[in-house]
């Protein structure tokens, strides 16, 4: 197939497509294009009989044509935004590379493929935050007197984060030095600290339940080699569009309660509504009670390590919301639950200080 034939076929298909709402169509394009990009192999360096790259190009071309058609339809309906334009250019360059690979013209294929990678990066603006490499400074700089062994100034990116503290939820700019691990920030609006965990999306599974969704995120550390799994249950049912390699940030209160997830690549936010909080304990103590910290630590550090504990957590999440509601409506039960929990809490804190 020639690249021009591919583009014409995509254009013809685009004319027949009708699209959902603008924002959703753009997110659909982003998700499909980035998933496809991650499957396109590097063109081979030399010729071989029965080359697997040529076979791969054959199967990927029809898929690319479909995604390119979607891109052209999105551009037609919603205008050529920056991201859409870069995605379409990257798709065209990859299409060219695949056509050339299929026909065994590997040198030109390599050229088009490199161009496609550059365009891919532009189509995914937050990738640059994590991968920007600064040139190595000279061992000794005569004019400034600095040597390479002086601590290097890290580039700081500005990110917009939402304060996860109850009653605040204000958005502010924060400095972010790309690297693995969580960060602790203090919200300038309410003066309360919060924790932010940054990661690039590797995979997301969503399990649809009767009145909630269970999210299983797998994220790669930014500039690190670690992988984290973050799961929670969410009851609002709001859409949270993501694509592979999006830069996500998980926002926790200082009591390590996950409150929100932000996708910094497309500026979408998911505020996690209480299906995932500690129902019974929250009802008895009220939101934000210090006792909750000990219970959550107990849940995360002790219960989740044992089979029976995990069984308990599952049962608790299944029956917790109903039980908590029942507790809240009965002040005398609430006082009783509170008394029992206080005792458990005393034991918990004693065990913890005894074991560490
Ligand atoms: Zn705040």
Q: Can you give me a brief rundown of this structure?
A:
Helix content is 47%, strand content 19%.
The unique ligands bound to this protein are: zinc ion
How large is the count of helical segments?
Answer: 10
Order of helix and strand elements from N to C terminus: HHHHHHEEEEEEEEEHHHH
Largest sheet: 7 strands, antiparallel
How does the overall form come out from the CA principal axes? Answer: elongated
Task: Count every beta strand, where a strand is a DSSP E run of 2 or more residues.
Answer: 9
Q: Percent of residues in helical segments?
A: 40-55%
Determine the N-to-C terminus distance.
67 Å
Decide which structural class fits the backbone.
alpha+beta
Mean of pLDDT:
79
- As for the number of domains, it is 3
Low-confidence stretches: 130-135, 276-288
Radius of gyration: 26 Å
β-strand amount = 15-25%
């Amino acid at each position: 197939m020639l690249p021009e034939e591919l583009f014409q076929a995509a254009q013809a298909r685009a004319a027949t497509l009708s699209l959902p709402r603008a924002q959703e169509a753009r997110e659909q394009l982003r998700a499909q294009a980035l998933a496809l990009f991650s499957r396109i192999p590097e063109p081979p360096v030399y010729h071989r009989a029965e080359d697997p790259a040529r076979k791969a190009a054959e199967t990927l071309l029809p898929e690319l044509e479909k995604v390119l058609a979607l891109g052209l339809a999105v551009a037609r309906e919603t205008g050529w935004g920056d991201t859409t334009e870069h995605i379409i250019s990257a798709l065209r360059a990859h299409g060219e590379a695949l056509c050339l690979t299929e026909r065994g013209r590997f040198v030109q294929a390599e050229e088009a493929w490199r161009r496609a990678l550059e365009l891919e990066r532009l189509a995914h603006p937050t990738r640059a935050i994590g991968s920007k490499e600064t040139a190595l400074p000279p061992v000794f700089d005569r004019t400034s007197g600095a040597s390479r062994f002086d601590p290097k100034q890290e580039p700081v990116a500005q990110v917009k984060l939402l304060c996860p503290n109850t009653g605040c939820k204000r958005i502010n700019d924060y400095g972010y030095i790309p690297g693995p691990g969580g960060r602790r920030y203090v919200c300038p609006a309410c003066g309360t600290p919060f924790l932010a965990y940054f990661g690039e999306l590797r995979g997301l599974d969503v399990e649809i339940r009767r009145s909630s969704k269970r999210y299983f995120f797998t994220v790669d550390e930014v500039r690190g080699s670690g992988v984290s799994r973050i799961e929670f249950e969410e009851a609002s049912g709001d859409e949270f569009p993501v694509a592979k390699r999006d830069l996500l940030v998980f926002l926790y209160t200082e009591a390590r309660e996950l409150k929100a997830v932000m996708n910094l690549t497309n500026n979408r936010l998911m505020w996690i509504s209480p299906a995932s909080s500690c129902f019974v304990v929250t009802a008895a103590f009220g939101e934000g009670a210090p006792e909750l910290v000990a219970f959550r630590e107990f849940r995360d550090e002790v219960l989740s390590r044992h089979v029976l504990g995990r069984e308990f957590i599952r049962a608790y999440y299944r029956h917790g919301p109903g039980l908590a509601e029942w507790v809240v409506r009965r002040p005398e039960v609430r006082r009783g639950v509170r008394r029992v929990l206080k005792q458990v809490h005393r034991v918990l804190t004693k065990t913890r200080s005894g074991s560490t």
